[in-house]
């Protein structure tokens, strides 16, 4: 858990424009002095594309390999790290709290990032896409692997250039959602941004869409009435938890007018409703629990969380463990 004094955030970078936007997002959303920020680059001695056809494409007798391929790559990433550190400095982050870490690829990019992320960091941050942007890939391959494997560190996935000014925290009645409020409060401490605790209640009728034609008019009216009553009960059960979350964040210094709660009902899709609310409300950051109320052991990632990340190509999504 994040200490009272400071968080430790690891940002995986590859030198791409998206990586720069990821660093910029972190620098803007985290209050200066609130976090130690580490920029991690896993260095490829061999460009990734070279491995497509050969197990090890390095010429065995070519003494100029390092000079002709590896050294220029290192210069590029060094220039990138200098530029990102300067950006963080201009955003108010002290040089002593920003460091760069370049490591040679060992077990693979995803595994190497995973290993470092487990060394006491409170969040791992990466972009949806990296230097190779193939239109048929929803995520970069590294992001996909980390989503499935990183179950013990909070993951922030950043798409595009999201506005860090407003945060939407998607809540349910699970333990993950309760911890979510505490995590957000600790990240920002007394510099909480405008934030909404958001809960979606699905219309249970969407569970049986193919049976709709079988209902008579009277049956349809009865079903609609039952759906309305169920939504009311679900909302009433959720209100105390949302009130508790709002109070906890206001007690941390959030302004009453900035810390709000909202429940919507009758939605066919929780993930779709979350994305729609974020975009319509101008929330650049969506915060979710890794798993919701329904916990299926075979699935390492919550269904709603996974769907939200798949759709959030222009948002930052935090997945809290």
Any overview of this molecule?
- The protein is an alpha/beta fold.
- The chain folds into 2 domains: 7-158, Rossmann fold (3-Layer(aba) Sandwich); 166-320, 3-Layer(aba) Sandwich (Rossmann fold).
- Helix content is 40%, strand content 20%.
- Strands 3-2-1-4-5-10-9-6-7-8 form a 10-stranded mixed β-sheet, sandwiched between helices.
- Helix 4 (141-149) links the parallel strand 4 and strand 5.
- The chain is elongated.
List keywords for this structure.
321 residues, alpha/beta, Rossmann fold, 10-stranded mixed β-sheet
Q: What is the strand and helix layout of this fold?
A:
Blueprint: E1 7-12, H1 17-29, E2 35-43, H2 65-90, E3 98-104, H3 109-117, E4 123-127, H4 141-149, E5 154-158, E6 166-170, H5 175-188, E7 194-202, H6 217-251, E8 259-267, H7 270-281, E9 285-289, H8 303-311, E10 316-320
Parallel strand pairs: 1-2, 1-4, 2-3, 4-5, 6-7, 6-9, 7-8, 9-10
Antiparallel strand pairs: 5-10
Helix pairs in contact: 1-2, 3-4, 5-6, 7-8
Summed up, what is this model?
The protein has 321 residues and is of the alpha/beta class.
Broad structural category: alpha/beta
User: What's the number of extended β-strand segments?
Assistant: 10
Instruction: Return Rg in Å.
Output: 22 Å
- Estimate the global geometry from the Cα principal axes: elongated
